[in-house]
């Protein structure tokens, strides 16, 4: 390969590398712009864009003095941006956090809706059920047996769990971390005199757990078609 061919090849490779470099930078800028525009404020977006435009113009026009200033002041510029746009950055972070909270709240509302819908439907059908929502205290010591599930909550799944033909319909459904964790679980039987004699095994099991831990327990009576709530050693029929 002669010198001219080598130079032409080097130029071609350099041009290709420069094109890839520019494309990657442009993609990164577009992503940053869209992200800040969605979650931040116009002040942050416009300030960063103006600084970038000046830097690329200086680089394009080969203005070494301005490039030197940008290179040496970049750490200071970052700190300055944080100070200048402190309110906007705070709003940015607060809005990001609020979006996460809203997503978590929506998931919690959806789970509550599924459980409520299932309890009401089973009460109307006189289909017995017991659903446990553990609190801060663990319930492993007071529960046993059953089947591991770890499934996304849904109304059809809840109804099938307590279907009389299901192998675990007589046990409890444990709901943990927004999931249907286990079903067919055995709970301790209470001997409390607080419960009327006509209440069945599910109610005594729910009271047994409510006496041991801070779990919230719902029971559907297949005899009466009523929903009872147990927590803290007490119950509401």
Describe this structure in words.
This protein is α+β, with helices and mostly antiparallel strands. The chain folds into two domains: 3-92; 124-236, YojJ-like (1. The protein has six helices and seven strands. The protein has helices at residues 3-39, 42-60, 64-84, 86-124, 155-161, 201-212, and strands at 129-133, 147-151, 172-176, 179-185, 216-220, 227-231, 234-236. A seven-stranded mixed β-sheet has the order 2-4-3-1-5-6-7, sandwiched between helices. Helix 4 crosses helix 5. The N and C termini lie far apart (93 Å).
Descriptors:
237 residues, alpha+beta, YojJ-like (1, 6 helices
Helix and strand topology:
Elements (H helix, E strand, L loop, with lengths): L2 H37 L2 H19 L3 H21 L1 H39 L4 E5 L13 E5 L3 H7 L10 E5 L2 E7 L15 H12 L3 E5 L6 E5 L2 E3 L1
Parallel strand pairs: 1-3
Antiparallel strand pairs: 1-5, 2-4, 3-4, 5-6, 6-7
Helix pairs in contact: 4-5
The percentage helix is: 55-70%
- Tell me the name of the CATH homologous superfamily of the largest domain: DNA integrity scanning protein, DisA, N-terminal domain
- Radius of gyration, CA atoms, in whole angstroms: 32 Å
Kindly name the structural category: alpha+beta
**Oligomeric composition of the shown chains:** single chain
Task: Report the CATH architecture of the largest domain.
Answer: 3-Layer(aba) Sandwich
Order the strands across the largest sheet as they lie in space: 2-4-3-1-5-6-7
What about the largest sheet?
Answer: 7 strands, mixed
| Beta-strand percent range | 5-15%
Kindly state the number of beta strands: 7
Can you tell me the CATH class of the largest domain? Alpha Beta
Mean pLDDT: 75
Anisotropy-based shape: elongated
Listing every helix as H and every strand as E from the N terminus to the C terminus, the arrangement reads HHHHEEHEEHEEE
Number of domains: 2
What is the helix tally?
6
Q: Compute the separation of the termini in Å.
A: 93 Å
- Residue stretches low in confidence (pLDDT < 50, at least 5 long) are 6-10
**CATH topology-level fold name of the largest domain:** YojJ-like (1
């Amino acid at each position: 390969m002669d010198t001219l061919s080598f130079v032409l090849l080097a130029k071609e490779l350099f041009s290709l590398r420069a094109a890839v470099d520019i494309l990657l930078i442009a993609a990164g800028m577009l992503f940053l712009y869209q992200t800040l525009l969605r979650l931040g404020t116009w002040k942050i977006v416009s300030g960063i864009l103006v600084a970038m435009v000046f830097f690329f113009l200086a680089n394009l026009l080969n203005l070494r003095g301005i490039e030197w200033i940008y290179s040496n002041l970049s750490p200071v510029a970052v700190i300055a941006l944080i100070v200048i746009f402190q309110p906007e950055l705070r709003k940015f972070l607060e809005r990001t956090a609020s979006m996460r909270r809203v997503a978590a709240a929506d998931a919690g509302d959806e789970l509550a809706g599924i459980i409520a819908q299932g309890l009401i439907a089973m009460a109307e059908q006189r289909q017995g059920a017991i659903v446990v929502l553990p609190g801060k205290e663990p319930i492993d010591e007071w529960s046993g047996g059953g089947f591991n599930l770890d499934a996304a909550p849904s109304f059809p799944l809840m109804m099938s769990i307590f279907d009389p033909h299901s192998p675990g319909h007589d046990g409890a459904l444990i709901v943990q971390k927004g999931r249907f964790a286990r079903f067919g679980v055995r709970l301790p039987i209470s001997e409390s005199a607080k419960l009327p004699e006509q209440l069945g095994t599910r109610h005594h099991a729910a009271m047994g757990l409510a006496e041991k831990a801070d779990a919230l327990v719902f029971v559907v009576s297949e005899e009466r078609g009523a929903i009872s709530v147990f927590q803290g050693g007490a119950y509401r029929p």
